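Repro:
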Amino acid sequence: MLNPGEKAPDFNLQDQHGNLINLYSILQSKKAVVYFYPKDETPGCTAEACSFRDNYEDFKVLGAEVIGISRDSGKAHNSFASNHQLPFTLLSDPGGKAAKSFKVPKTLGIIPGRVTYVIDQNHTILSSFNSQFNALLHIQEALKALKA
């Protein structure tokens, strides 16, 4: 996992609408909360996404954009976002290249990891949090990091 103080790697990934999103472009105007999660429509991932949704205005007030990333397709992300009224960007990382560049560990060596990073406009990681099984704690940790 990448640690606070390290530089976040850049990426170009497609969002749920087919648009190519560049992390460093987002960081030109705001901080980013980038969270990697295993799979759309699973219980833990749905609870996590809905908690980010329910706290989205708090993230915006703190000057941050929320970005979710998994290996799911853009079509799956579009359906997931629509089903749960998610107001933030979901990015497709089909080969796991972005997850690898952020050193997101797999659980039991096979399950894609659940890691949240808070990144500032200088591309520096302010906070990193890893918990596969406590999905809701990711939101609390990200908000705490932004308020610090």
